[in-house]
Amino acid sequence: MASDVPGTRKLGLVVPGLGHLAERQWIDGLALLSYLGILAWALLGGLGRFDALLFPPAEAGGFKIHPWVGVMSWVGWVALCWFMAWRYANPVVPHESDKSSNWKDFKKQFVKNRVGVFGMHLVGCLILLALVTPYVAPFDPDQIDVGGQRLAPQLGYLMGTDEFGRDVFSRVMYGARISLSIGFIAVSLSATIGTVVGAVAGYFGGAIDKALMWFVDLLLSMPRLVLLLAIVGFFRTSGAQSIFLIVVILGLTGWMGVSRIVRSQILSLKEQDFIQAGRALGLSNSRIIFKHLVPNALAPVIVYSSLAIGSTILVEAALSFLGLGVPPPTSTWGAIVNDGREYMRAAPWITISPGVMIVLAVMAFNLFGDGLRDAMDPKLRGR
Amino acid sequence: MFSYIVRKLLLAIPLLIGVITLIFGLIELSPGDATDRFFTPETPPEVRELIEQKWGLDKPAGHRYLLMIGNLVRGDFGRSIFQERPVFDIIFEALPNTILLSLVSLLIIQFVGITLGTIQAMRQYTPSDAGISVVSLFFYSMPRFWLALMLQLIFALMWPILPSSGMTDAVMHDYMTPFQQFLDYCKHLILPGCALGIASAAGIARYMRSSLLEVIRQDYIRTARAKGLSETTITVKHGMRNALLPIITILGLQLPFLFSGSVLVETIFAWPGMGRLIVEAIFTQDTPVIIGCFFVMTLLVVAGNLIADILYALVDPRIRYS
Distance between CA B263 and CA B273 in Å, rounded? Predict the structure, then answer.
């Protein structure tokens, strides 16, 4: 059984990725090697600084959680790399009696689509970079005048320095952490709200459906960025402008698409026999909705959400660019672009580098989401 | 058809009232108001009262709400607290500029998007299909404000062939012949129009590709091929006609995105339109202008959807609204 697995795959146990490369699995192999590269970079970058980062002296602000999260994710990701290599060297041979489940079928379809897999690994690299940021970034993002003001990109200051002499590379790295987490949290919030609203509207129908969908239409008829600007602008003066406020507002203005998708799913699902059976058994409405209907309607929500993370990152960057996002000095991608705007002729690198990161991140989520969608929708297969 | 349009327009009324109510409620919930900037901590309370009385802010919220709705019904948008001018005048100075910019970028979106999508569908699975896919995904994932800045950097700062901002040449415009003035407008439109349109064009190219691919597999295309028509005639005359139908609806739905984008693009290119106006109004908490802008924007979005519906029925005789 195991004899027909080529021995070259075992190479991966030494350095994860080599096994894939030997089998010409370029995308997986190179992705694993990139993970290892980032991990090694974090290790080297952290050398000599671990003490200062993990146990900062009281005058530097005391205990911080990020370096600890960094260490833990470092260890976890190393384990993950070797696990993937080991899994590749010792593949699980499916037993003949195994039934093919939807999930397995979906996974098979997704892996076939190389572009989607590429997107997934790109997302993985970004998440890993964000997690180990304190060790990869050479400077504190707020440290002023690390080597001089508006230095051009060079060794040591990979993306140059800005008008206060802060290292742009470090700021972009820390910005990745903010932008990605805002994207994830806001989208989870809006997916939850959208699912509940869509399920309630679809299941109960009638006046409730009409009222909820009217409200959805109302919110959709306002340009999202303008609405966001208005809300943040109104509440800015109350001193509540913070990451928390931005996340909640992004979540509250992004759920309409999900609710429409879930509603249409529920409308077709609720006529099916298993729901009739549930009703005949006397199950409560909330039990039918959340235990039987919603789990069956969740797949398109996940696809939509992975695509929505990209657009949420874009909207957050736009807000920060207009100065209504996360307040300074916290570095976010949009805010760095805004910082560099005044010096665009003299120091274009301040504007260019965070923008490239935004494009990269949004592209990664779009590729990943497209891959998920193609794997989910049998109609699109083979296109 | 006519009754359909009337019904749609009637449905827009509660939508408009809903939008205005939501915005009014948000403004009421938020702390502070537009007159705050007139005060210092030393302002005598009598002066404060007088100023608040002047703008009607001493009345209870419910009263002001009803007053506002009543005025809006009569077409009175109130006076801007910041500019001390009627909101109606301010908005209708800015609106044509935004519509001009939106139309130009819609043209770019249509032309670039449909052309690229058609090329991709005709050459499915070739390197040019993949190449266009990658490039359009790249632009699709790009923030509009960053694209605008990069266009400004490349075509106005590093290689100055186009003006970097504004709608007309600040100095020379008044001394130009009408034709030169027209050219001046065009030159100033290119960069903002591209910044606003390119990202959406990339999206439209994706829709167009899949829409055309779907059409091309149908039987009547096979018939056309069997008749011996050239591949170009088949695609352009027979395929495109049907493939364009869903695109029309999508273009109608682009309007809110264009407004969102114009907020950024107009701010960057100093384009005197609605986007810049609303950003300024939000920063100065100029309530009447904010409400007026939302009113007009919602109206335009509803109108855009309606126009898309009507166009859809005009080009596709199978669609009948009743």
Answer: 9
Enter the DSSP assignment of A9. G
Is there a contact between B279 and A348 if contact means CB atoms under 8 Å apart?
no
Q: What is the per-residue pLDDT across B147-185, written as a single tens digit (0 to 9) for each? A: 999 999 999 888 888 888 877 777 777 777 888 888 888
Residues 6 or more apart whose Cβ sits within 8 Å of residue A333: A172, A175, A176, A179, A313, A317, A320, A354, A355, A357, A358
**pTM value?**
0.88
Beta bridge partners of A92: none
Distance from CA of B198 to the nearest CA of A (A): 14
Question: 3-state DSSP: chain A helix, strand, coil percent, rounded to 5?
Answer: 70, 0, 25
pLDDT, tens digit (0-9, with 9 covering 90-100), for A3-31: 567 777 777 788 888 878 888 888 888 88
Dihedral over Cα of A21, A23, A26, A27: its sign: negative
Give phi and psi for B243, each to the nearest 5.
-70, -25
Of the candidates B194, B172, B196, the residue with the CA atom closest to the CA atom of residue B184: B172
Q: How big, in percent rounded to 5, are the helix, strand and coil portions of chain B? A: 75, 0, 25
* Category of A92 on φ-ψ map: left (φ > 0), alpha (ψ -120 to 50) or beta: beta
ipTM (interface predicted TM): 0.86
B308 close contact with A: CB closer than 8 A? no
B284, closest residue in chain A (CA to CA): A233
Residue of A217, A233, A318 lying closest to B282 (CB–CB): A233
Rounded Cα distance between B123 and B112, Å, is: 17
Q: Which of A225, A252, A351, A352 is best to mutate for the B interface (most B CBs within 10 A)? A: A225
Other CB atoms closer than 10 Å to residue B61's CB: what's the count? 13
Pick A363's closest partner by Cβ from B19, B141, B293.
Answer: B141
The secondary structure element, H or E, covering residue A202 is: helix A168-204
Q: Which amino acid is at A286?
A: S
Token look-up 């990139």 returns A34
Task: Give the C-alpha separation, A308 to A186, whole Å.
Answer: 10
User: What residues of chain B, 25 to 64, have a C-beta less than 8 Å from chain A?
Assistant: 26-27, 29-32
Q: What CA–CA distance (Å, rounded) separates A363 from A356?
A: 10
Contact status of B137 with chain A (Cβ, < 8 Å): yes
Tell me if B137 sits within 8 A of B202, measured CB to CB: yes
Cα B279 from Cα A260, distance rounded (Å): 30
A-contacting residues in B 193-222 (Cβ below 8 Å):
210, 213
Verify whether the Cβ–Cβ distance B146 to A358 is below 8 Å. yes
